[in-house]
Write a structure and sequence with these properties.
The protein has about 280 residues and is an alpha+beta fold. The chain has a single domain, classed as PPM-type phosphatase domain (Phosphatase 2c, domain 1). The chain is built from six helices and twelve strands. The strands form two sheets. The protein has a six-stranded antiparallel beta sheet, with helices on one face. The protein has a six-stranded antiparallel beta sheet with strand order 2-3-12-11-8-9. β4 and β5 form a beta hairpin. The mean pLDDT is about 85. It comes from Roseimaritima ulvae. One of its GO terms (molecular function) is phosphatase activity.
């Protein structure tokens, strides 16, 4: 699937799809718990007016049913409002405010937000209490964790959304090269158990992916799922399972998309004034 400029795609329903944006290949997989048609894992991708900015969101929301559906709708709207902003600080702050308003009912979420700018191939990652992203360097052929730390700050930092309305969130900027991979996943992968009933944890996930053959990126996600299910028969049935894998390609947006960007921006303003949208998302599919 080719993402369109000014598009927001995603939701909280089952999916197994390959998406292309300028500079990125994205593989998205989501399997809600049991036989549910929707789950607490929410995923979104957006592409700006020119296609140069791609944003990815993976959130694990506490609660079920109508609460998660309302949250998914709210997050989609936030993605749309921030679709042309390269800095994601405002977006993450707005997400935290949204969950702070729900905190009276005990709702919160972990999340990882990534913003990719294709002209520079830089990826900015913000983590709110979520399992850390994993980075694969093509040249070194090694995997490593992407951790975000705030140095010299007394503020509450990088906590799950909704825990504190005063929380600050740090950014990790990564310079990607063609062939590099970034893997985001929900905690169901990290909390998978081995044959002895012990959770594999962060170290276990890193070990698992380090043993993968990455020469065919389209097979990475299904191989992870296969290996996790082989560790324990119930690993993929206990919770929602979501994986977002991206690969940097080095390709930029087309000249046509750059030239059309001002007109798309004008169109989005008119749509907002008319109360209409042009998003594709899996809640309605």
């Amino acid at each position: 699937m080719q993402m369109q400029c000014m598009e927001v795609w995603g939701g909280n329903r089952p999916i197994d799809r390959n998406i292309e944006t300028p500079g990125l290949h994205v593989w998205a997989f989501c399997k809600p718990h049991g036989k549910s048609l929707s789950g607490g894992d929410v995923y979104y991708l957006s592409s700006c007016a020119s296609g140069r900015i791609t944003r990815l969101l993976l959130a694990d929301v506490s609660g079920h049913g109508e609460v998660v559906s309302a949250v998914a709708t709210g997050l989609r709207d936030l993605m749309r409002r921030n679709i042309n902003h390269i800095r994601q600080t405002k977006f993450v702050r707005a997400m935290n405010e949204q969950f702070s308003q729900l905190s009276t009912r005990g709702e919160f979420a972990t999340a990882v937000v990534s913003t990719f700018f294709s002209p520079t191939m830089k990826l900015n990652v913000c983590n709110a209490g979520h399992p850390p992203s994993l980075l694969y360097r093509q040249q070194q052929q090694t995997w490593q964790e992407l951790t975000t730390e705030m140095e010299g700050s007394d503020q509450i930092a990088d906590t799950p959304l909704g825990v504190s309305d005063e929380a600050a969130y740090s950014q990790h900027e990564v310079q990607l090269d063609p062939g590099d991979l970034v893997l985001n996943f929900s905690d169901a992968i990290m909390e998978s158990e081995d044959a002895d009933g012990q959770q594999i944890g962060r170290a276990g996930v890193l070990k698992l992916v380090s043993e993968l053959d990455v020469s065919q990126p389209d097979k990475i996600v299904p191989t992870i799922l296969e290996k996790v299910s082989q560790l324990h028969s119930e690993n993929l049935d206990r919770d929602d399972v979501t994986i977002l894998l991206i690969q940097a390609t080095g390709e930029g947006p087309s000249l046509r998309n750059n030239l059309m960007a001002p007109f798309r921006l004008l169109g989005s303003v008119r749509q907002s004034a008319a109360g209409t949208t042009d998003e594709r998302h899996t809640e309605s599919s």
